[in-house]
Specification:
Order of helices and strands: HEEEHEHHEHEHEHEH
CATH architecture: 3-Layer(aba) Sandwich
Strand order of the largest sheet: 1-2-4-3-5-6-7-8
CATH superfamily: Alpha/Beta hydrolase fold, catalytic domain
Number of strands: 8
Distance between the termini: 41 Å
Number of helices: 8
Number of domains: 1
Largest sheet: 8 strands, mixed
Length: about 250
């Protein structure tokens, strides 16, 4: 009986979709770029997500997030804005981020959306974006650049303030931030939220009082907040399900 209970416990932890990642290539302007595609099992069509890395590059943690989201029934494309470079050094990450041309990054993200739309198992009307840190800011940029985006998640990413740019957003926004984040203060987040609501945009913001920047990444030893991370994950799934699966 004890063995049966243990077996049932193991089975209940197995995701409904067992996603496998594979490296894919697609065109971004005149260049060929790469990413990692995670495809849920099943016939589809599935909703899809562009998954955008932090300033570290396309490291295992970001791939894990893409895989976990695929386990929830989303085709996910983890983009590689650094063209194969990644690091665990803050100094190198800073250099990589500063050296990334914004126009090229935004072109790559638009290309990622088009690549997902070309996949037979993807519902082209249900594509969203999610990013963390640097990637959170680029997730917002993608919502501004692509009016077809159906959902947009910003995890402690930079914010836009220009009303003309904000008016271009059509996707519902979920913003998850830390009150102790020195680079993105709560007052700026609330102003961003108020501006979008004033324009009639759909936005849902949560600011975690005891969290700082990058609080969702366990590699951020001092700043990792497990309880806030779990709540942010649940909010993310609820938001994505509401906007991409219905």
């Amino acid at each position: 009986m004890k063995q049966l209970v243990l077996l049932l416990a193991v089975l209940t932890t197995i995701p409904v979709f067992a996603a496998n990642g594979k490296t894919v290539a697609y065109k971004s302007g005149d260049e060929t770029v790469h990413g990692v595609l995670y495809m849920p099992r099943g016939k589809g069509p599935f909703p899809a997500l562009v998954v955008i890395h932090e300033w570290w590059g396309l490291v295992p943690w970001v791939k894990d997030q893409a895989s976990k989201l695929a386990d929830q029934g989303y085709v996910t494309l983890a983009v590689d804005l650094y063209r194969g470079k990644a690091t665990d050094s803050p100094e190198t990450a800073h250099e990589l981020m500063r050296g990334l041309p914004e126009d090229r990054a935004n072109r790559d993200l638009l290309a990622a959306v088009q690549y997902l739309k070309s996949q037979k198992k993807v519902n082209p009307a249900k594509i969203g974006s999610i990013g963390w840190c640097m990637g959170g800011g680029y997730s917002l940029d993608l919502a501004i650049a692509d009016p077809t985006l159906a959902a947009d998640v910003i995890n402690y990413g930079h914010l836009a303030t220009d009303p003309a740019r904000l008016q271009q957003i059509h996707a519902p926004i979920l913003g998850l931030f830390g009150a102790q984040d020195k680079g993105i203060p709560p007052a700026d987040v609330r102003k961003f939220e108020q501006d979008l609501k004033g324009m009639g945009k759909s936005i849902d913001v949560t600011i975690y009082p005891d969290a700082g920047h990058a609080f969702q990444n366990p590699d951020n030893k001092a700043g990792y907040r497990p309880a806030d991370t779990a709540d942010a994950w649940n909010r993310t799934l609820e938001f994505l399900d509401a906007n991409l699966k219905k």
